[in-house]
Design brief:
This protein is of the alpha+beta class and 316 residues long. It has helices at 24-27, 74-87, 129-135, 161-164, 169-176, 213-217, 271-281, 310-313; strands at residues 17-22, 65-70, 150-159, 228-244, 250-264, 288-298. The protein contains eight helices and six strands, in the order βαβααβαααββαβα. The strands form two sheets. A four-stranded antiparallel β-sheet has the order 4-5-3-6. The structure holds protoporphyrin IX containing FE. Protoporphyrin IX containing FE binds next to strand 3, helix 6, strand 5 and helix 7.
């Protein structure tokens, strides 16, 4: 066996980052304390509730360990995952994999998702340490091994693009609650103007519909809850259904959508708090289905000479 599979030879590191997380199963699975870690499971690493509309496939859900590899070059990201899987071959096995992409990442423009809308506009700023401390980094409330880390929620969300693409842009904008081309809130011109959820038209109807995605997701609708979203898109081809429409053609569905990745200080006051009402009322639900995902506790970054999760695995 070669020391390295070789497909990244000569490539630059392409800003590769690798982020690890631990799933609930590492601490306890089927009531069994498999590694003597059950007492160290943080309260915030909850078993995820089942949300309205969830169709999570077992084969793409959960896991004991998560590895998120990001790079400007997909071959570099895959290389990292593949080498780690190979090194861990005797002790771990791959459960599921999802690739994703963000167009023109690193430019000044907010990237567009596959619905054609800018995604990530109203995120807490990573340049604002106070916001990061409040909403993203874990603090004193958690076991010491998680301090300075973060909880990541991932969801594989299929978007019925074949259905979405038939909608008028005005209807798409009502669904999202923002203008498609500029990314501005409805009734506004510029992307970064604040949402005004109280704005009404001349008939007194809300400019941003009651069940628009951004209204239900906004901090103002969720007791100030916020999460840091990293909206990757995915495109895994197409599936054909038994249905024929028009009769001369077999109906086709894209297996494509959003690989939703969101970091937060505590999922109970982050994703779960925000998504509970959205899963019931969001107009976008007509077009999206959650088909996989997980929740993982990501310990903080490493000091030199340290290994991932050292303070979790080392006995006092
Ligand atoms: C396929 C699924 C989804 C799509 C296509 C989508 C798309 C969008 C778009 C276009 C925006 C407006 C731009 C922005 O501020 O980023 C937005 C905002 C937002 N979305 Fe989603 N989203 C999806 C799923 C979710 C889920 C599952 C959550 C769960 C909590 C969520 C939470 C949010 C939040 C918190 C905002 C910011 C709202 C604000 O404060 O203005 N989204 N989303």
């Amino acid at each position: 066996m070669g020391a390295d599979s070789g497909e990244a030879l000569g490539l630059p590191s392409a800003r590769l980052t690798v982020t690890f997380g631990f799933g609930a199963g590492l601490f306890i699975r089927d009531g069994k304390d498999r590694y003597g870690l059950a007492a160290r499971r943080p309260d915030a690493l909850v078993d995820m509730p089942k949300f309205v509309g969830d169709q999570l496939a077992e084969a793409r859900t959960g896991g004991d360990l998560s590895v998120q590899a990001c790079a400007d070059d997909p071959q570099v990201a895959f290389h990292a995952v593949r080498q780690l899987a190979r090194l861990a071959d005797d002790v771990a096995q791959v459960r599921w994999v999802q690739t994703g992409f963000i167009p023109s990442y690193g430019t000044n423009e907010t990237p567009r998702n596959l619905m054609g809308f800018r995604d990530g506009t109203n995120n807490p700023s990573t340049a604002d340490p106070k916001a990061m401390e409040e909403f993203v980094w874990v603090g004193e409330e958690s076991p010491d091994w998680m301090r300075g880390g973060s909880y990541v929620v991932v969801r594989r969300i299929r978007i019925a693009l074949e259905h979405w693409d038939r909608m008028k842009v005005a209807f798409q904008e009502q669904t999202v609650g923002r203008h498609k081309y500029s990314g501005a809130p409805l009734g506004k011109k510029n992307e970064f103007e604040p949402l005004d959820l109280d704005a009404a038209d001349t008939d007194g109807n809300p400019v941003t519909p009651e069940n628009a995605h951004v209204r239900l997701a906004a901090a103002a609708s969720n007791d100030a809850a916020q999460i840091l979203r990293r909206p990757y898109s995915y495109n895994d081809g197409v599936n054909f259904t038994a249905e024929r429409w028009p009769p001369w053609r077999q109906a086709m569905e894209y297996d494509a959508g959003l690989f939703f990745v969101a970091y937060q200080r505590d999922p109970r006051t982050g994703f779960i708090k925000i998504f509970d009402r959205m899963s019931k009322f969001d107009m976008m639900n007509q077009f999206v289905t959650h088909v996989g995902g997980g929740l993982f506790a990501c310990p903080r970054g490493l000091a030199e000479g340290e290994f991932i999760g050292q303070s979790l695995f080392e006995r006092a």
